[in-house]
Design the sequence.
C-alpha cells in the first residue's frame, strides 16, 4: 500500500514536471521566435498559431487526410508555424532545437499514419501550406515548385503554360509535393517516365543547423536520400526543380467492372501476366471492392479494370485485343480525352473542370474519412486458389468498406537500377497492392475490428508476396511493420526491420547520409532514418 502511494506521488511529481517543462519551453519558444525577426515586414508573428489563436484548429485540421488522427485524444502541437519565407523555417528550426521541441513538417498532410501532424512528445508543426509558389519554365521544360504545393496545383499551372507537357506526379491531386517526392511518388506516367523522384534536377533544403543547401552544396548523397528516403528524416525540403515530360494531346481511358460471376478471378489471374508487359504508355490498375449481388442479397467481389493510355483509341483497341482478349473490351469502352481529364476521370472527381485540381481541401466522398492502409509488392503471379482465399476475407461482414488497388509495374520502372534512388521496388516487380479499409468518423473511438481485419488479411497475403524482405512502399506508411523508440535512440538493427522493407539495401546508405547531415537526430519520428552509433 505504502509503495503504491509512493509510486503515485512519484508519478504526480514527474507528470507535473513534464507539464511545466512543456509550458515553459513553449513560452520560451515563442519569445525565441519573436526575437529573431526585428523588422516588422518579415515578422514571424503573423504566421505563428497557438491554441489561443482562433484559427489554430482550422489550420490544424485543414489538411488532416486521415481522421483516425483527429480524435479528442490525439496529441496536438504546441505551436503551428505557416512559413512564408525561408527565414521563417530557419528560425523555427533554431528555436525548436533550443527549447527541446520536436518539429513535424507538413506539406499536404497525406501521411497514412499522421506523422506530419501528430507526435507524442511536445512538438511544433511547420505547415508549408502557404509555401507553395510554382514557377513553370515551359521553354526549358522545368519548373520550380515549393513543397507546400499540391500535385493538382502543379498540374494546373503547367497546363496553363503548355498543354503538351506535365510532371509525372501522383494520381490523387491533393497529395503534397513535399511528401510525395520525399517518398518516391508514382502516378499515371510512372511506367513511362519513372517516379516523381526520378524527375527532379535540384532542390532547396534546410538542415538541422538552419543552413540552406541546394544540390551542389548538399552533395549527391543527400540529394539522393531526399528523393525517396521518406519525409521528415533529414531536414526540410523547401522546393524542388522538376523536369517536365511530354504528353500527347489525346489519351484514351477505359474502366470496366467484372464480378466473380463474370470471371473476375480468372481475369485478374491473367492480368498478372499481361499488365506488367504492356507498353510503357499504359497505366493499368485493378481496383477490388465488394458489392451486393443482384437479387438474392449475397455479396460478390467486383474487379474494376482501368487504364490510361498515352495515345488514341485506334491504337489501344487492337493492342488490348491482342494482349488481353479475355477482358472482352469493346470500342465503346474506350474514351478519348486530355491528360488532365484522364486524371479527373481515374480519380473519380465529380467536377470535370480542371479548376478542381486547385482545391486543396477537396475530400472525395467515395473515400471513408478514417482509414488504415498497408502495401505489398508482388514478384510472382498469385495462383487462382490464393485469389479465392483473398475473396473470402473480403466477403467477411466487417470488410464492406475495404478496397484493394493493384497497380501494374514494369515498363520504365524495370530499367532504373534499384540503387538509383532509395526507392528499391524496380526490376522484377509485377505489381503493388494497396490494401485499405475505411470507416466513418463516428466509429473512430473503436476502429479495432477494422484494424484487426486488415492485419489478418496482411498475414494471409504473406505467403504470396515478396519475401526477405517483404517489401512495402514508404509513402504508404505503416507503423505495424516497425517503429523507432520514443527517446530518439533506435539501434540500426531495430530500424533495419522496417527500413529493409521500404528500402532494401538502400537503407544502409540512408543511415550513412543521416549520420552525416543530422547526427544529433533532431529531425525524427516513428519511422525516421536513425543515425549510426546511437
Ligand atoms: C488519398 C491519398 C491518395 C494518395 N495517392 C498517391 C498517389 O497517387 N501516388 C503516390 O505516390 N502516393 C499517393 N499517396 C501517398 C502519398 O504520396 C504520401 O502519403 C505522401 O507522403 C504524402 O505527402 P504529403 O505532403 O501530402 O504528406 P505529409 O503528411 O505532409 O508528409 C508526409 C511525410 O513527409 C514529411 N514531409 C512533408 N513535407 C516535407 C518537406 N517539405 N520536407 C521534408 N519532409 C517533409 C512529413 O513530415 C511526413 O513524414 C496518397 C495518399 C492519400 C492519403
Ligand atoms: C496569435 O495570437 C498571438 C497572441 O495574441 C499574436 O501575437 C499572433 O500574432 C497571433 N497569430 C496570428 C497568425 O494571428
Ligand atoms: C516573405 O514572403 C512574403 C510573402 O511571400 C513576401 O511578400 C516578402 O517579401 C518576403 N520577405 C522576405 C524578406 O523575403
Ligand atoms: C510543346 O509545344 C511547344 C509549342 O507550343 C513547343 O515549342 C514544344 O517543343 C513542345 N514540347 C514538347 C515536349 O512537345
Ligand atoms: C467465363 O469464362 C468461361 C470459360 O473460361 C466462358 O465460357 C464464359 O463465357 C465466361 N463468362 C463471362 C461472363 O465472360
Ligand atoms: C447491400 O445490402 C445490404 C443488406 O441487404 C444493405 O444494407 C446495403 O445498403 C446494400 N449496399 C448497397 C451498396 O446497395
Ligand atoms: C446469388 O446470385 C448470384 C448471381 O448474381 C449467384 O452467383 C449466387 O449463387 C446466388 N446466391 C445464392 C445464395 O443464391
Ligand atoms: C473544395 O471541395 C470541398 C468538398 O470536398 C468543398 O466543400 C469546397 O467548397 C471546395 N472549395 C472550393 C474553393 O471550391
Sequence:
Amino acid at each position: 500500500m505504502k509503495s503504491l502511494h509512493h509510486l503515485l506521488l512519484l508519478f504526480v511529481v514527474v507528470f507535473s514536471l513534464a507539464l511545466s517543462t512543456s509550458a515553459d519551453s513553449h513560452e520560451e519558444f515563442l519569445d525565441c521566435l519573436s526575437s529573431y525577426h526585428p523588422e516588422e515586414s518579415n515578422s514571424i508573428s503573423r504566421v505563428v498559431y497557438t491554441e489561443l489563436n482562433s484559427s489554430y484548429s482550422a489550420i490544424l485540421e485543414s489538411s488532416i487526410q486521415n481522421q483516425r488522427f483527429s480524435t479528442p485524444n490525439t496529441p496536438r502541437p504546441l505551436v503551428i508555424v505557416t512559413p512564408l519565407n525561408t527565414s521563417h523555417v530557419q528560425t523555427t528550426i533554431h528555436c525548436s532545437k533550443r527549447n527541446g521541441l520536436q518539429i513535424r513538417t507538413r506539406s499536404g498532410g497525406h501521411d497514412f499514419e499522421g506523422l506530419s501532424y501528430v507526435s507524442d512528445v511536445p512538438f511544433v508543426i511547420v505547415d508549408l501550406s502557404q509555401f507553395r509558389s510554382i514557377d513553370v519554365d515551359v521553354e526549358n521544360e522545368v519548373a520550380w515548385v515549393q513543397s507546400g504545393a499540391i500535385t493538382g496545383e502543379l498540374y494546373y499551372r503547367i497546363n496553363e503554360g503548355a498543354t503538351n507537357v506535365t510532371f509525372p506526379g501522383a494520381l490523387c491531386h491533393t497529395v503534397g509535393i513535399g511528401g510525395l517526392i520525399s517518398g518516391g511518388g508514382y502516378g499515371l506516367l510512372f511506367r513511362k517516365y519513372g517516379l516523381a523522384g526520378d524527375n527532379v534536377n535540384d532542390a532547396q533544403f534546410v538542415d538541422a543547423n538552419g543552413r540552406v543547401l541546394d544540390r551542389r552544396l548538399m552533395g549527391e548523397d543527400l540529394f539522393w536520400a531526399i528523393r525517396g528516403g521518406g519525409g521528415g528524416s533529414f531536414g526540410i525540403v523547401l522546393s524542388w526543380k522538376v523536369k517536365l515530360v511530354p504528353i500527347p494531346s489525346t489519351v484514351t481511358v477505359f474502366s470496366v467492372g467484372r464480378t466473380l460471376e463474370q470471371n473476375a478471378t480468372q481475369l485478374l489471374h491473367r492480368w498478372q501476366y499481361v499488365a506488367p508487359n504492356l507498353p510503357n504508355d499504359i497505366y493499368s490498375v485493378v481496383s477490388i471492392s465488394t458489392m451486393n449481388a443482384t437479387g438474392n442479397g449475397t455479396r460478390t467481389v467486383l474487379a474494376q479494370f482501368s487504364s490510361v493510355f498515352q495515345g488514341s483509341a485506334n491504337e489501344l483497341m487492337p493492342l488490348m485485343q491482342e494482349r488481353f482478349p479475355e477482358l472482352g473490351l469493346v470500342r465503346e469502352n474506350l474514351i478519348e480525352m486530355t491528360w488532365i481529364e484522364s486524371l479527373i476521370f481515374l480519380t473519380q472527381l465529380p467536377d470535370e473542370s480542371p479548376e478542381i485540381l486547385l482545391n486543396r481541401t477537396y475530400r472525395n466522398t467515395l473515400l471513408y474519412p478514417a482509414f488504415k492502409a498497408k502495401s505489398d509488392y508482388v514478384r510472382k503471379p498469385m495462383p487462382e486458389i490464393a485469389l479465392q482465399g483473398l475473396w473470402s476475407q473480403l466477403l467477411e461482414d466487417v470488410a464492406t468498406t475495404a478496397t484493394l488497388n493493384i497497380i501494374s509495374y514494369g515498363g520504365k520502372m524495370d530499367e532504373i537500377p534499384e540503387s538509383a534512388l532509395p526507392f528499391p521496388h524496380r526490376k522484377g516487380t509485377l505489381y503493388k497492392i494497396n490494401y485499405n479499409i475505411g470507416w466513418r468518423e463516428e466509429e473512430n473511438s473503436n476502429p479495432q475490428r477494422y484494424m484487426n481485419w486488415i492485419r489478418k488479411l496482411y498475414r494471409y497475403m504473406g505467403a504470396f508476396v515478396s519475401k526477405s524482405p517483404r517489401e512495402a512502399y514508404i509513402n504508404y506508411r505503416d507503423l505495424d511493420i516497425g517503429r523507432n523508440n520514443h527517446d530518439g535512440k533506435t539501434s540500426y538493427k531495430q530500424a533495419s526491420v522496417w527500413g529493409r522493407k521500404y528500402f532494401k539495401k538502400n537503407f544502409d546508405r540512408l543511415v550513412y547520409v543521416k549520420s552525416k547531415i543530422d547526427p544529433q537526430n533532431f529531425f525524427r519520428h516513428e519511422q525516421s532514418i536513425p543515425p549510426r552509433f546511437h
User: Anything to note?
Assistant: Residues 2-35 form the longest helix (34 residues). The chain has three domains: 25-130, 134-246, 251-336+367-476.
